[in-house]
Write a structure and sequence with these properties.
The complex is a heterodimer of chains A (about 160) and B (about 140). Chain A is of the alpha/beta class. In chain A, strand 2, helix 2 and strand 3 form a beta-alpha-beta unit. The radius of gyration of chain A is 15 Å and the shape is globular. Helix content of chain A is about 40%, strand content about 25%. In chain A, strands 3-2-4-1-5-8-9 form a seven-stranded mixed beta sheet. Chain B has about 140 residues and is α/β, with parallel strands linked by helices. Chain B has one domain: 3-Layer(aba) Sandwich (Rossmann fold). Chain B has a four-stranded parallel beta sheet, sandwiched between helices. The interface between A and B is medium-sized, with 18 and 15 residues.
Chain lengths: ~160, ~140
């Protein structure tokens, strides 16, 4: 497997991804799947400023990423796939493209309309629905901000949501 | 409120910014409002940008810990339109001391001076000992 991590993280390329996960997973490339960023060269430059060593980054629309998934899985390089929100990951998964894949929920922060699920995960009702839809597409969802942290599966997350 | 001069904001992970301001206070005794500590903890990139913008009043240097990461990125992405606003990454105590001692300078001149000082302040020992060899008075 050459995709070593699928992750939803509002901050996209940042310390937890590059240092925290990068140290453990040793990726060659980070692919950011985001329709807006794929069309914004100056923002791409900002994100790539933080890369070090041989680590590369690329930015693709959801449609481009869907077309490239099979190639990434067969590639020799080790790839981290990032989206900034659950909705984008769900669109990437549409039609069962991520069936059986582990999806890491890394950081969705406080904002109006969201409720706290975990210290680093806040979800709106719509995002909760998107997460359930992603699961129904066959993806295996869990939350973990860093590799050494406890893995929280979807049922526990949604249980937390119901309790609050 | 501080006297006129460039103001500083430190934006960093966890409680790093608070610790740095405390260290600068111990060494240089700064006035209220000269250096403002901010944390990115629990904030989305947009919220980090809003937080920074709410603290910018006049010429400002924003110090971030990492060049990229959420602090550096949010500062550059969401505050790029601010006038008299400079972002310096890799914040350190030498950089902050240079800032507070010279913040009456023009913003660009001050920023360049702070960066140069911070770079020069990183040395290893004994590897870089020769840099200060000429200062020894007992030779």
């Amino acid at each position: 497997m050459s995709i070593v991590l699928f992750r939803v993280d509002e901050r996209l390329i940042h310390g937890q991804v590059v240092v925290g996960w990068g140290t453990v997973l040793r990726p060659d490339r980070i692919v950011v799947v985001d329709d807006a960023l794929a069309d914004s060269e100056w923002e791409q430059e900002l994100f790539t400023m933080g890369l070090f060593g041989e680590l590369a980054a690329s930015f693709e629309t959801i449609e481009e990423a869907r077309a490239h998934l099979a190639g990434w899985r067969a590639a020799k390089e080790r790839i981290i796939v990032l989206t900034r929100d659950v909705a984008s990951m769900r669109k990437l998964a549409d039609g069962g493209l991520l069936r059986g894949e582990q999806i890491n929920i890394g950081g969705i922060h406080h904002a109006a309309g969201r409720r706290q699920i975990l210290p680093y995960v806040y979800l709106s009702d719509e995002e909760t629905r998107q997460m359930s839809a992603l699961s129904e597409e066959g993806a295996v969802i869990s939350a973990r901000d860093l590799p050494a942290a406890r893995k929280v599966d979807l049922n526990e997350m949604l249980g937390n949501n119901r309790e609050t | 409120m501080s006297e006129a001069g460039v103001r500083g904001i430190i934006l960093a992970h966890g409680s790093m910014a608070t610790g740095l301001v405390d260290a600068v206070r111990q060494i240089a005794g700064i006035e209220e409002g000269v250096l403002t500590p901010l944390s990115n903890k629990g904030l989305s990139p947009e919220a980090i940008g809003d937080l920074v913008r709410s603290h910018v009043h006049g010429p400002t240097i924003l110090f971030t810990d990492l060049q990229s990461g959420s602090c550096g990125f949010a500062a550059r992405r969401y505050c790029h339109d601010l006038a008299d606003f400079v972002v310096i990454s890799g914040v350190s105590l030498p950089a902050l001391l240079e800032f507070v001692m010279n913040r009456q300078l023009a913003l660009d001149e001050l920023a360049a001076r702070v960066v140069e000082r911070a770079r020069n302040a990183i040395i290893s020992s004994p590897g870089d000992a020769a840099v200060n060899e000429h200062r020894a008075v007992s030779r």
